[in-house]
Amino acid sequence: MRVLVTGGAGFIGSHVTRVLVEAGHGVTVLDNLSRGRRDLVPDGASFVEADLADEAATEAALQGHDAVIHLASFLEVGVSVEKPVLFAENNIVNSVRLLEAMRRAGVGKIVFSSSATVYGVPESLPLREEDSLGMQANPYGATKVAVETFLGVYHQLYDFDCVLLRYFNPYGPNELCEPETHAVPNIVRAALERRPVPVYWGGQQKRDYIYVEDLARAHIAALNVEGFEVFNVGTEAGTKVIDIIDTVSAILGYDVAVDDKGERPGDVEASYASSEKLRTQLGWHLQVDLEDGLRRTIAHYRERLGIPE
Ligand SMILES: NC(=O)c1ccc[n+]([C@@H]2O[C@H](COP(=O)([O-])OP(=O)(O)OC[C@H]3O[C@@H](n4cnc5c(N)ncnc54)[C@H](O)[C@@H]3O)[C@@H](O)[C@H]2O)c1
User: Model-level pTM?
Assistant: First the structure.
């Protein structure tokens, strides 16, 4: 298949692009490099530097493609609270621009990077695709719900095939957020630099940490889906933050110090997925367990930060 990957120069998109190329698909990355890096685009993929706000450039890039994997967006939750209009424009309006460009270019298949955040505060665990969407606590989450809704509209109006992948907590090489707000890169960086790791709630919060390569492979499976479908992508296990710290300590061979920050209002106590639908309907399965994933992530940050063994 010929696949256009928006945001393919970013953290998750770079891995999605690599697994697509390895599986023999023809891949074009479209990215404006606002966050991504050109050197993260794997060999074997074409690259178009363009902004989704430029509908004509997107339409031109789409020619000859069979499907789109749409990852491009802004994602820092705190920034979304400060700049809701920026997030609405880039994440919602630019997604609708992409859908319009697809319609004109005759490309009717899209896989979208949604998020577990759409469920809000979980009413029961594990979270399942049929669970109702929750009230959103920040503009970022609202943009994901809005784009999911627009995809439903394009499915009904124009018969687009739409696959919504609700990611849980991806981690691994190439994370780019500045400031970094995700637990795993912050723990790994602090541990390698022998700084204390800031921890809330005594590290008892549970999240569903999925290695980015396992997440990336879900996109390949999704390309064969027709109609409108939603899939959670997680490991189906809730892992405590403190367990991540303990595993990193065991891998590094020294105790990682913890800076206890107490309680943080607004944090969800536990969130993890059922990915049964993805496993049973698409034959996807996990290949990288937490310890292996953390080893690979530590190796990446060692090289990136210039910290020898
Ligand atoms: N990282 C996570 O923890 C996480 C969790 C759930 C969902 N997601 C979603 O996954 C997707 C990818 O996230 P990521 O962590 O790889 O982020 P990232 O910032 O590393 O990648 C996003 C890429 O999109 C590009 N981009 C942004 N706006 C663009 C525009 N208007 N035109 C062209 N390119 C544009 C950026 O340059 C960047 O390369 C996002 O949609 C995000 O919301 C991420």
Answer: 0.98
